[in-house]
Amino acid sequence: MANSKKTCLAADIGGTNIYMGLVDEGGHILARHGFSTDSSRGPDLVMAEVIRHLKELAAEAPRGRPPRGLAIGVPGWINQSEGILLKAPNMSGWVNVPVARIMSRALDMPVFLENDCNLYALGEWHGGAGRGLKHLLVLTLGTGVGGSLIIDEKLWYGAFASAVEIGHLRVESRGAPCGCGGRGCLETIASATGMARLGREWLKKKKDTLYRGSPDRLTPKVMYDLARRGDPMSLAVFRRAGEALGLVLAGVFNLLGLEGVVIGGGAAGAFEFIRPRLWEVMAQGIVVADPARLKLVRGELGEDAPLAGAPALIRALTS
Question: Which of the residues in the chain have pLDDT under 70?
C-alpha cells in the first residue's frame, strides 16, 4: 500500500463497541460505521454483523480505489500468523476464534489480525499524540486495560506475538477477581469497568457523594461529570486509578527506558483527574531518567485511532 490513493478496511472490536472504517493510505477515515458489541451473542452473530457493515463500507470506496485488505483489532490474545483470537478475557465464549479466515472468506480480501491496543498505538504513533517518539508505551482504558509497546519505532510482540498485557499485572495481592482468572489486576482498578466497580463499592458503604442514581448506571463518564462538581466518590475513584497506573508505569519506565506514554480509551475522558496522582506516584518511582523529560499525555484520536492505524499495520505485515 505505497500509493496514497489506495484504501483499506479497518475494524476495531471492543468489549463494548465496534468501530469500522474505510481508510486511505495516510490514515484518513473516508467512511465509518459502528454499533454496540453485545459480545454475549457469541462470535458468529457478532462477526456476521461486522461483515455486513464492512461490505457496505467497501461499496463506498472511490472508483478505482477498492480496499486492498482488512486490518482488524481484537481485545485479547492472538495467534497473528494464523489469524486466530485465542482468548478475549472480557468477552465470554470468544476462545480460539479463526477471525481472519472467517473475514477473508466473506470479504474476499487479505485480513490481518492484531491486538486492538496495538492497532490503536499505531494510529496514535503515526498521526496522534505519540508522533516523533521512538520508544513509546500506549495504554487504553476501556472495558479492560490494553497495552502496546513501540520500541525502536517498531511494535514489540515478544516471543508469542501477543504481549504487553499490562492490564493483567497484579497491583493488589487480595484484590477483586479479574476476567483473566487472576485477582487484583490493574484493570480491576483502572479500566472503565474497574472504576465503575469502585464507585459501586463506595455507594454500598453509603459514603458521601453527589450521585443519586442507580449503582448499575454508574460509569466513568458519569463520575467525570460529578468530579467536575467536586464529588468525593468520583475524585477518590480517579485518584485510586491514577495511583495504580503510576505504580505500574514507574516499573515499566525503569525496565525499558521509554520516552513517554499515551493513555486513551473511553475512561481516559477523566484523564485530568487521573493524571495528578498518576504523575505523582510515577515520578516518585522512576530512577532511570528525569521524570520531567518524559511525556505523559492523553491520546488525540479517540475511537478513530485503531482505524487510522490500519494502513500502517498492513504495510508492516506485507513489506
Answer: 1-4, 160-162
Query: What is the C-alpha separation between 83 and 81, in angstroms, rounded?
Result: 6
pLDDT digits (tens, 9 = 90+) for 137-154: 999 998 889 899 999 999
CA angle 46, 122, 57 (to 5 degrees): 40
Q: Are 286 and 252 in contact (CB under 8 A)?
A: no
Q: Which CATH superfamily is domain 7-122+304-318 in?
A: ATPase, nucleotide binding domain (3.30.420.40)
Chain position carrying cell 479517540: 302
Domain 132-299 annotated CATH 1.10.260.40 = no
- What span, in angstroms and rounded, lies between the C-alpha atoms of 134 and 130? 9
- Check residue 163 and give its pLDDT: 78
Q: How far apart are CA 250 and CA 285, in angstroms?
A: 5
pLDDT at 2: 44
Q: Write down the pLDDT at residue 123.
A: 96
pLDDT at 161: 61
pTM: 0.89
